[in-house]
């Protein structure tokens, strides 16, 4: 009897030890794979949690900002926690923030306004990247939150409170009309194509579109509506006509697709999606509630939604 008990305890102990060793092996393989992968790709930051091994961080890479456990780190090729396929030319020197957004996303508007307020305070180059939210959802296999009734209900109170906190006049309409944002986003992309130096007009046009959709609840797809947006942003009627024609061209369709694919290369799964680049490293942040972490990553300070 006692012999059987000791055999059982020994087998259980051996099983636990084996699992621990295998877990440690997985971590070591993941880290070695990351080092090998860094020769060709910029690697994700992987911190080992092996009790006998010091935590190690790659200097060049994409910091996904998620805490990870040893059971989640399996191999360098794992999509979520392994190497992100970001080519060298995508990493810029200096401090750069890329904001991927779609005007159909109210949370993108919040991130947009805050980053516009902070770009001079943090002394960063803010690059506005109009993308296509439906393309991001499809490419990442994600689903819009409005398809979930509970999330849709939560958004009503959430946006009201966020509007007050961030000082952005944003209200969810009583009835969400399902409209594809591809037309207004092509319009914004055409504005960006026209504006070779800076993003001032892209900023103004984007803001006007957000106001129409999430504040005054006006149309954003008809040519007359886009003309009104363009004129309010500072274009002449003739210039807006040229932009409307350009927005229908294959060149702009391809450009919007290209920017959306650029976001997906960073493993984007929704908007707003923000890529922060500093000293050859890039950190990715999702949503409009990661500004403290962005400041920390940049080595800057966060002074709240209304910096002086």
Explained architecture:
- The protein has ten helices and six strands, in the order αβββαβαααααααββα.
- The chain is an alpha/beta fold and 308 residues long.
- It has a six-stranded mixed sheet, sandwiched between helices.
- Helix 2 links the parallel strand 3 and strand 4.
- Helix 6 crosses helix 7 and helix 7 packs across helix 8.
- The chain is globular and about 45 Å long.
- It comes from Danio rerio.
- This is Glutathione S-transferase kappa 1 isoform X3.
Order of helices and strands: HEEEHEHHHHHHHEEH
Tally of extended strands?
Answer: 6
How many helices in DSSP terms? 10
Share in β-strands: 5-15%
* Mean of residue pLDDT values: 77
Low-confidence stretches: 1-89
Kindly report the spatial arrangement of strands forming the biggest sheet: 1-2-6-5-3-4
| Percent range of helical residues | 40-55%
Sheet with the most strands, sense and barrel status: 6 strands, mixed
Q: Kindly name the structural category.
A: alpha/beta
Q: Shape, please? A: globular
Ends apart, CA distance between termini: 77 Å
Rg, please? 23 Å
Protein name: Glutathione S-transferase kappa 1 isoform X3
Organism: Danio rerio (Zebrafish)
List the helices and strands and how they pair.
Layout: H1 2-37, E1 43-44, E2 61-63, E3 96-101, H2 106-118, E4 125-130, H3 133-140, H4 149-166, H5 182-194, H6 200-214, H7 223-233, H8 237-247, H9 250-265, E5 273-278, E6 281-286, H10 291-298
Parallel strand pairs: 1-2, 2-6, 3-4
Antiparallel strand pairs: 3-5, 5-6
Helix pairs in contact: 2-4, 3-9, 5-6, 5-8, 5-9, 6-7, 7-8
Protein name: Glutathione S-transferase kappa 1 isoform X3
Organism: Danio rerio (Zebrafish)
């Amino acid at each position: 009897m006692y012999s059987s008990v000791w055999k059982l305890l020994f087998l259980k102990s051996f099983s636990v030890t084996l699992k621990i060793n295998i877990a440690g092996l997985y971590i070591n393989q993941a880290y070695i794979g990351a080092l090998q992968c860094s020769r060709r790709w910029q690697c994700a930051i992987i911190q080992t949690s092996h009790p006998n091994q010091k935590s190690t961080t790659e200097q060049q890479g994409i910091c996904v900002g998620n805490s990870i456990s040893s059971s989640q780190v399996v191999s360098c090729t794992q999509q979520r926690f392994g190497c992100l396929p970001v080519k060298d030319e995508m990493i810029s020197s200096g401090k750069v923030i890329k904001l991927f957004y779609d005007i159909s996303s109210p949370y993108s508007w919040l991130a947009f306004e805050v980053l516009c307020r902070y770009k001079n305070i943090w002394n960063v180059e803010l690059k506005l990247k109009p993308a296509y939210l439906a393309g991001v959802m499809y490419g990442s296999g994600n689903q819009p939150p409005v398809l979930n009734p509970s999330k849709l209900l939560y958004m009503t109170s959430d946006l009201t409170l966020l509007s007050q906190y961030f000082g952005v006049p944003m209200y969810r309409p009583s009835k969400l009309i399902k409209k594809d944002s591809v037309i207004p986003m092509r319009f914004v992309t055409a504005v960006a194509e026209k504006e070779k130096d800076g993003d001032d007009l892209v900023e103004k046009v984007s803001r006007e579109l957000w106001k129409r959709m999430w504040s005054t609840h006006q149309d954003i797809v008809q040519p007359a509506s886009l003309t009104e947006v363009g004129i309010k942003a500072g274009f002449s009627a003739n210039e807006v006509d040229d932009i409307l024609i350009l927005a229908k061209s294959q060149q702009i369709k391809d450009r919007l697709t290209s920017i959306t694919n650029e976001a997906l290369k960073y493993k984007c799964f929704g908007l707003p999606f923000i890529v922060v680049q500093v000293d050859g490293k890039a950190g990715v942040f999702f949503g409009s509630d990661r500004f403290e972490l962005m400041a920390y990553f940049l080595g800057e300070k966060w002074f709240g939604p209304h910096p002086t």
